[in-house]
What does this fold into?
Amino acid sequence: MIQRIQSVFLLLLALAMLSALILPLWYKIDALTNQELTLTAFGFQAKGLQLPGTTGPVWIIGALALTSAAVAVYEIFQFRSRMKQLLLGSVNLLLITATLGAAFYFSSKGEQLLNMKLEGKAQAGFYLPTLALLLNLLANRFIRRDEQLVRSADRLR
It folds into this structure.
């Protein structure tokens, strides 16, 4: 179970997605007006700026990241059914991609809320879904390799 390398990758994936919930995703500051805008997984946090009520459902980033982490943990314990693990890995690929897409979308919305001439900066939480995507691909590769090994052993019998 945990001794398999794909389980380690899936555990790291879950930790990366849970860390994306805590860390800020995007940050922008206007030094002239002392206004700051931070995007987290559950909303915008503004300092010195009045946010309009139509920033959208930013919490969707957090919901997608949390779901992805839960799928990864569930996938670890499905070690007896490699085909189910591969299916869950594909679902997780879609969830992580949706998390990245939502983060890009809401960071571009944040760009419009504060001085258009200044660019916001991606923070550590913004890059963690990309790391999770890589870890998911590696886990799926090793799961597929295990399945091929089992099939080749069945042919020898």
Q: What stands out?
A: The chain has one domain: 5-156. The chain has a mean pLDDT of 88.
